[in-house]
Write a structure and sequence with these properties.
globular; six-stranded mixed β-sheet
Length: about 625
């Protein structure tokens, strides 16, 4: 076999064909040479992993390591993906008038993000479809925002969010401005496979001079912050924000968030943020953090805490690198210790805040048609708030693609969506953007801090405890183990499904002597739910991911699931107390013991060589 002047034989006709295919199609000298080097070194096993498997659409798009091969993020795979997406859009919108609505493209500050967005633009421009390509790095929410405001057919954000620096991704939004769900994901994947041969024009960056290419940045920047200002009660801006001396330390985590949060604070009448300079501007190397993810807690906030202590700030706000997530830490005035709030704690605070803002803006409106949303692995605190305050609560599958699309459904029915969140520090404070938005969440949370200090001299921790008194204490534990072998993950979950000695099914209890009895099991991989009369789960199931939820007789709920974007087995545990119950320490202790039992007995981390999260 010969390709590009190299004579080789891998011993596999299939692999030989894929090597030839890659070297014929790939016009990027670096990635083409990468494959050539592996061929010359006869690295057939590595080449099989790179070329015989294909990066497939998962959580709203693609995400993977940047390297040569069909199973990674690179120029060729991006072009193939854009060609498939383009053809699918043309099939869904065959009329010329519809196609002129165009597509939105944005990118973050990672290596190759701009190039991947520009190559995608060439694909759509070749097809005569107008492109709104942001000319500079943007926060991820600005892509769905532009899809909605410009009435475009779809949007793509090139980002790997908080993944390691070696990764990149391709996040797709549909015409309704929410992330894609089935059947769009499967249909796009099918169209990619039908359009694998890259057109010569797809590599031609001269197409970026086309009149059909526009930069929406200035218009969307202005409009986004106009809408953000309208979503914060004017009286709160005037009476609390502008009169407050409250300062906030802010970190963009080497990402894109700073100019957007800076403008948001200005619009909201807040004091300018005190930014962590080392992390303020985009840097694809993420040099100061092990993981560029504020969800990791104090380990990701070392520089923020240092700066806050030096400047006397008592609240820290942190975005992830593409600014769609928000973390927050607060200094305890009595102990001087820093508390990093969990996503569930911030969800409770922002859920309450969304109702407070709505009541301020619409004092005569009923809450009967208002909704709070949360993913199924998030705390049920918003459900408790909704029940007592007379709102509605909707639970969805994990991920904002489900909450965004559910919000679309509700608004079409004339309902008002006030707030949606997931425990992974993702918050949608209004449906202005039908996705998580770390910029608006930062402005809303900062306004809440000013409001609480002015009206009741409360900290965020004080307010959270007050909410627990009113709506019941909700104790949550969330964490994960790394597992880099898909076959191990499958073996773990298959064992869980068959580990009961009597029935050959899911376990009936965990802990020594069956200490914690399981009341019901819901398995959204197989579609089974023992709590339903027909044994069928109400939420949609998917065989492509693992997710099992155990409801215990003592009221605890623990879910095990795989991540859609990272090599992790995650677990989520919650114990809900009734309003007025004050033995919070006992709840925490019991839940911690239950989690330890679940991890040791079901996941068997030592036996399966799982790596725990580094605290």
């Amino acid at each position: 076999m010969e390709a590009s002047g190299i004579v080789f034989d891998s011993g596999s006709a299939e692999l030989n064909a894929k090597i030839v295919e890659w070297l014929q199609w790939d016009k990027n000298e670096n990635s083409s040479n990468e494959i050539k080097s592996l061929v010359k070194a006869q690295q057939w096993k590595i080449l099989s992993g790179r070329l015989l498997k294909r990066l497939a659409f998962g959580t709203a798009g693609l995400r993977g390591v940047m390297q040569a091969g069909f199973n990674a993020m690179n120029d060729l795979v991006v072009i193939q993906s854009a060609q498939g997406l383009c053809q699918y859009i043309r099939e869904c919108y065959p009329s010329e008038a519809d196609q002129q609505r165009g597509i939105v493209l944005g990118f973050d500050g990672r290596h190759n993000s701009r190039r991947f967005a520009e190559l995608s633009a060439c694909v759509f421009l070749t097809a005569g479809i107008p492109v709104q390509l942001y000319s500079r790095t943007v926060a991820t929410p600005f892509v769905p925002f532009a899809v909605q405001e410009l009435k475009c057919l779809a949007g793509v954000m090139v980002t790997a969010s908080h993944n390691p620096k070696e990764d990149n991704g391709y996040k797709v939004y549909w015409t309704n401005s929410a992330q894609i769900i089935s059947p769009h994901d499967k249909n796009i994947q099918a169209h990619i496979l039908r359009n694998l041969v890259p057109l010569e024009s797809s590599w031609n960056l001269d197409l970026l001079k086309s009149e059909k290419l526009k930069d929406p940045f200035d218009d969307m920047f202005k409009l986004y912050f106009e809408k953000l200002e309208n979503n914060i009660p004017k009286s709160f801006i005037a009476d609390y924000n502008r009169k407050s001396a409250q300062r906030f330390v802010y970190t963009a985590m080497h990402g894109v968030g700073f100019p957007f949060v800076e403008r948001g604070f200005e619009i909201a009448g807040l004091q300018p943020v005190t930014a962590v300079k080392e992390q303020r501007d985009p840097d694809p190397e993420f040099p100061t953090v092990k993981f560029p993810n504020p969800e990791e807690g104090k380990s990701s906030l070392v520089l923020s805490i240092k700066l806050a202590n030096e400047t006397g700030c008592d609240v820290i706000l942190a975005n992830d690198p593409d600014a769609d997530r928000l973390a927050c830490a607060e200094k305890d005035a009595s102990t001087g210790e820093w508390r990093v709030f969990t996503g569930n704690e911030l969800g409770a605070l922002l859920g309450w805040w969304s109702i407070r803002c709505y009541r301020e803006q619409y004092p005569d409106a009923s809450l009967a048609d208002c909704y709070l949303l949360a993913s199924t692995v998030s705390s049920k605190m918003c459900r408790s708030i909704a029940k007592i305050d007379g709102l509605n609560f909707e639970e969805t599958l994990t991920g904002f693609k489900w909450m965004g699309n559910k919000s679309v459904e509700l608004m079409k029915e004339g309902k008002t969506v006030l707030f949606a969140y997931e425990e992974a520090i993702g918050f949608m404070c209004t449906p202005t953007v039908l996705d998580k938005d770390g910029v608006s969440a930062a402005c809303q949370l900062a306004t809440m801090v000013c409001y609480l200090k002015a009206t009741s001299n409360q900290s965020l921790a004080d307010k959270l405890n007050e909410l627990y008194d009113i709506y019941g204490y909700h104790c949550t534990i969330t964490s994960y183990h790394f597992c880099y072998e898909p076959v191990t993950i499958e073996r773990i979950f298959n064992r869980i499904r068959t580990m009961d000695c009597e029935t050959g099914g899911h376990p009936k209890a965990v802990g020594a002597g069956g200490k914690y009895a399981i009341e019901s099991v819901r398995d959204l991989t197989t579609g089974y739910d023992s709590a339903q009369p027909d044994g069928k789960a109400l939420l949609p199931s998917s065989k492509s991911s693992q997710m099992i939820t155990f409801s215990f007789e003592n009221g605890a709920v623990i879910t095990l699931r795989t991540s859609g974007t990272e090599p992790k087995i995650k677990y989520y545990a919650e114990m809900c107390a009734k309003p007025g119950q004050r033995d919070w320490n006992a709840s925490r202790s019991t839940l911690r013991d239950m989690v330890n039992c679940i991890v040791e007995e079901l996941l068997e981390p030592t036996k399966n060589n799982l790596t725990p999260r580094s605290e």
